[in-house]
Amino acid sequence: MSADPEILDRLETRFPGAITRVEAVDQPTCLIPKDAVRAVALYLRDEEGYRMCIDVAGVDYHPDRPRFEVVYHLYHPERRARLRVKCRVGEEEEVASVTPIWPGADWPEREAYDLLGIRFAGHPNLTRIYMPDDWEGHPLRKDYPLRGTRID
Amino acid sequence: MASLGPEAKAGEMPPDSPFVRGAEAGPELSEETMVINLGPQHPSTHGVLRVRLTLDGERVVDAEPVIGYLHTGFEKTAESLTWQQANTVTDRLDYLSPMSNNLAYVLAVEKLMNLEVPKRAQYIRVLFAELTRIASHLVWLGTHVMDLGAMSLFFYTMREREVLLDIIEATTGVRMNPSYFRVGGLAYDLPDGFHEKVRDFLKEFPRWMKMYRNLFEDNPLILERLQGVAVVSREQCYAYSVTGPILRATGVARDLRKDEPYSSYEEFEFEVPTRTEGDALARFWVRVEEMYESHKIMEQALEKITPHGPYTTSDRKVALPPRDEIYGNMEALIHQFKLVTEGFSVPRGEVYQAVEGPRGEMGYYLVSDGGPRPYRWRARTPSFYNLQTLPLMCRDGLVADVITTIGSIDIMLGDVDK
Amino acid sequence: MALSDEQKEMERSILLTSVEKMARWAQKSSLWPATFGLACCAIEMMSVTNSRYDLARFGSEVFRASPRQADLMIVAGRVTQKMAPVLRTIWEQMPEPKWVISMGACASSGGVFDNYAIIQGVDHIVPVDVYVPGCPPNPEALMYGILKLQEKIAQGLPPKYKELEARMVREAQGA
Q1: Taking CB atoms and an 8 Å limit, are C116 and A132 in contact across chains?
Q2: Tell me, what's the pLDDT at A152?
Q3: Residues from chain B contacting residue A51 (CB–CB below 8 Å)
Q4: Residue A104 is nearest to which of B77, B349, B388, comparing CB atoms?
Q5: Statement: the pTM of the whole predicted model exceeds 0.80
Q6: Chains with ≥3 CB–CB distances under 8 Å to B
Q7: Calpha distance B414→A96 (Å, rounded)
Q8: Per-residue pLDDT tens over the stretch B158-177
């Protein structure tokens, strides 16, 4: 179903021991340690040609630890192949920003910071994007009430 | 603003004037720049977009979009609803093409559940997805040309959009935000006289387009303002995750309907219009030609749709049983009660499904924990990514071209701000 | 008694009314809305000015980009926490007398978005004269809302903010 089914094999050869395959119904998926994000991203862009970062999403697995999962959806324009790379990151930890590698990741990373509080090291402008600058808390976290902290 | 030099005669523009387009006006002319706030309440920003413009005379040094004025909390709200209910919030993301959003979402859930949808429902989905694409492009065409100063086309496109909205209203009961596609199929069957209504539209459409083309095709004022403005290259599009007509205007025939066919698109014949210039004019033509292709697809879809037949899956664990069954059949009553009170469960897992919306790749990343509600409901909206190129396109252009650029990116603020 | 030609001419061309009624009539027939499209409802607000619905019949088609030139604010769409101060500023910039129509479920009550980001009703921010229900309301519904507002003006009822002011004064005096 995927246009590039061997990509996980090549990743495993290149980064032995760092790649954990994850079963998914739609596209090749793997879990990597958060310290490997930069190296894997550079490899995927420069050597494999995954030049598009379709999406960066954060998922809050509270109360699991490490708390967050950052999900990168990548795309290969020539092979028209998709790849999903994930990494777990804790609340007090930082994960390397991929904005220097894929400039399109700028806003989605800011969004993940704004709504979930995931911190990206090396991001050029890691500020709130949706909520007002003086907003307290990160609304998309599972322990944040749906109706916020307002008083009606 | 830089003043005219003392040597310049009255009424004559010095060659290094900032009013001269492009790079002729060097940055050494004046050191001072001016910061201007465009929006969030501005008639030409198509909603509540705010752009922080740094200007050197008429030349744009930087244009930084400031967003979030319409941040609605879609993701948080959807995570508090059941899988079927969460469909209703997808309508309101990109409210000019609600059916595309619906389609991406229901396809994602169906993929996760491995659910089979009747062919007839798939064709109806295709027809409505293309119908909303035309409706969305009509609004874009009208407002974009209005931004350039041509008012009349807007009245024509909005008038003709009403015909499309009538078809939607006859089918779903509402003009906008219909939530017509449901997980498993459609909400209800087509109304009587549907085929005639759509056939009338399909017959009229080429005539409309001919009239529009008369208004803009050889209009030097419009062409002059679009040509060479807001240029992006193919590699820039890749780097900034740009999809849809903007990418296709740089010569890439990336269309998910062809690349990753969904909802039986592989059975339809159509072209993917592309241009190579990457400027506002190229995007303009890509979108105009896309409307013809959508028309072509709708014609084929209408042929395939039979007046009567199944419109939703027969899986009673997902789709509501028909009314008459509920009153006579105990089991149907139980299914109906369960579905309405707690909804269905989706197997544990994650999925990403994208469709080619009018503005680009509209995708959903869903994570299920096996329960009746989405654990993570993430919308990958095209405008959010496309808008990131605004500084790139505006830099070194003129202030007047900023409005053209915003129009040619074709943003939808509900889509940007989620 | 037969009227002379002169008297007939007078009957035809002179209209007696009070200045107040005249002013009200002028006000109600030329409500100029400020362009304040926020979300989905803004598209229906655009539709209402277009040829099929043609709001010009009721004198309200002139959408002004500047709040200084408008006396009606149609809040069309969901108002977010970030947008609320902007909305209030724009309302304050409008010259008096001014009216507000809250268009759609989101503006009136938050609608389906009962969450952290959306103001649960724009009447928390500005005083609202007419609420138009719907998600989004049909253009006809918005038109009906504008006609209701015209009725209100013709009857000489004060705008909502004046009403609130008067109530506050009364309460202060009573206390």
Answers
A1: no
A2: 53
A3: 235, 238-239
A4: B388
A5: yes
A6: A, C
A7: 30
A8: 888 999 999 999 999 888 88
Closest partner residue to B376 (CB to CB) among A26, A59, A108 is: A59
Q: What is the CATH number of the domain that holds A78?
A: 3.30.460.80
* A123 in any annotated domain: no
Question: Is A53 inside any structural domain?
Answer: yes
Q: Which residues of C touch B70 (CB under 8 A)?
A: 38-39, 77-78, 80, 83
- C66-103 exposure pattern, b = at least 16 Cβ within 10 A, e = fewer: ebeebbbbbbbbbbbbbbbebbeebbeebeeebbbbbb
Task: Report if residue A131 sits inside a domain.
Answer: no
Name residues 112-131 of chain A within 8 A of C (Cβ).
Answer: 130-131
Number of structural domains found in chain A: 1
- Alpha-carbon dihedral sign for residues C166, C167, C171, C172: negative
CB contact under 8 A, C120 and A152: yes
Q: Exposed, middle or buried, B269 (CB in 10 Å: 0-12/13-18/19+)?
A: exposed
pLDDT in tens, C67-101: 898 999 999 888 998 889 889 999 999 998 899 99
Q: What is the mean pLDDT of residues B142-147?
A: 88
Query: 10 Å Cβ neighbour count for B326?
Result: 17
Burial class from Cβ neighbours inside 10 Å (0-12, 13-18, 19+) for residue C130 reads buried
**C-beta separation of B409 from B390 below 8 A:** yes
Q: What is the pLDDT of residues C25-66, one digit of tens each?
A: 888 898 898 878 888 888 888 889 888 888 888 888 888 888
Residue A26 lies in a domain: yes
A89: alpha, beta or left? (left if phi > 0; alpha if psi -120 to 50): beta
The chains in contact with chain C, meaning 3 or more Cβ pairs closer than 8 Å, are: A, B
- Supply the ipTM of this predicted assembly: 0.93
Q: What's the pLDDT tens digit per position in B26-52?
A: 555 556 888 888 878 776 667 788 889
Show the domain range for A12.
7-93
3-state secondary structure of B304: helix
